[in-house]
Amino acid sequence: MFTIIAAASENNALGKNNELVWHLPNDFKRFKALTTNHYIIMGRKTFESFPKPLPNRTHIIITRQKNYSAPEGCIIVDNLKKAINLCPKNQENFIIGGGEIYKQSMEIADKIELTRVHTKVDADTFFPEIDKNEWNLIATESHPKDEKHAFDFTYLTYIKK
What CATH number was assigned to the domain covering residues 6-160? Predict the structure, then answer.
């Protein structure tokens, strides 16, 4: 099973200059809770946006760069199909970005865990449109802004029809 996990604004913005454009501590906690002890697939730029590999997860990094060097324990492949083939078939695996990897993954994903950040921001990376003819929204959980969260946000769970 493959789950896309992302946080995107109302205009589908994901980030700018390889950085997130908001800080949502509760979303980070949810991301950690969902992805810990699972395989996570990401593009090279997403991987490079982390200060170090995320603990207790198997990283599969997609890059076209030859001889790309990553820390021990990270797996390097040159396309999404190879990444998918390396994942365990009997458990949930996560696709964590970036924009191009999300776009390529929409056809193969079974589920989307999207944090919709209720703002519109300037960005250079975007989440693909979710086709309502292909996806059913099965759960929502709203969170108002507070002293730790500058924006209202909603967790949205979709499954493929």
Answer: 3.40.430.10
